[in-house]
Write a structure and sequence with these properties.
275 residues; alpha/beta; seven-stranded mixed sheet; 7 helices; 7 strands
């Protein structure tokens, strides 16, 4: 089976590249018909992620995939290696939702051959687009900062205990970016004393952040996982909440504008991860 797919690419004029792997809701009909009602609910979408970040940094490049994460998770290791060994998580082609419930009708799960086909059709083009854009940006500015945009429901017992903090920053324990990039991100979030921020806790950065974040090459990466209560209603029909979102957007805008200014000033050039 051959799928038609193209990542959505907005090329900007900034050292900042925004990646959005989980905001898409497209599901090929041949896969949709095999989902059960849990799968067809698409509950684990990063709902409104593009709207949340839209216009915060006008010159930033943006790369999205329109394909839903239940078809293939563009932020998982293409080899299928778990990012969080020993912890509950979902796979390259998920078989369950974030609550551990099956998303396929009995006997309709993808075979190994189909998983590989989806990888080449959906996962590979998205990451080819990211790699090309990061290289273009690095050639122009001498540095590139990949900012991986995510959101998730605040309470998912299958994945983590308790209520998730609003801002969850991941740099794979400082390995994927210059210390200043993490510092700027953390300080901007903690400027709002009414919301909780954590660094490299449950979410340390997915495959995208870990794969591209190589500060010694001039490419830095950091992941932001935002609890969805900070900008939307966390139940179907998953409505956007403008008043909440505006406050959250102000924090995100502060992060991105500071990262861009420091990148253009050369602060991240030849940076290492030493602390």
């Amino acid at each position: 089976m051959t799928y038609s797919f193209s990542p959505l690419i907005k090329r900007g004029d900034s050292p900042i590249v925004l990646a959005q792997p989980h905001g898409g809701t497209d599901v090929p009909l041949t896969i949709w018909d095999r989902f059960n009602t849990v799968g067809q609910a698409l509950a684990d979408t990063d709902w409104h992620i593009n709207r949340l970040y839209d216009g915060l940094l006008e010159n930033a490049s943006v790369i999205q995939t329109p394909v839903h994460r239940y078809v293939i998770d563009a932020n998982r290791d293409p080899a299928g290696v778990s990012l969080y060994p020993g912890q509950n998580t979902t796979t390259l082609c998920p078989l369950t939702d974030f609550d551990g419930r099956p998303i396929y009708r009995d006997g309709q799960e993808p075979s190994n051959d189909e998983v590989e086909e989806r990888r080449t059709s959906f996962h590979a083009p998205y990451h080819e687009a990211i790699a090309e854009e990061l290289e273009r940006v690095r050639q122009k500015f001498g540095v590139a900062v990949l900012y991986d945009c995510h959101s998730i429901r605040s309470n998912i017992p299958f994945l983590f205990e308790g209520e998730l903090p609003v801002f969850n920053i991941g740099s794979n324990v400082g390995q994927t970016c210059a210390p200043m990039i993490e510092q700027i991100t953390v300080e901007a979030c903690r400027a709002d004393v009414n919301v909780e921020t954590v660094v490299n806790a449950r979410f340390k950065g997915g495959w995208t952040t870990r794969h591209y974040g190589q500060p010694e090459t001039g490419i830095h990466a950091i992941q932001m996982e935002t609890a969805q209560r900070a900008y939307m209603f966390e139940q179907s029909p998953w409505a956007y909440a403008p008043e909440r979102a505006d406050k959250t957007r102000a924090t995100l805008k502060s992060i991105l504008t500071q990262l861009e200014a420091q990148a253009l000033a050369g602060a991240f050039s030849n940076a290492s991860t030493s602390r």
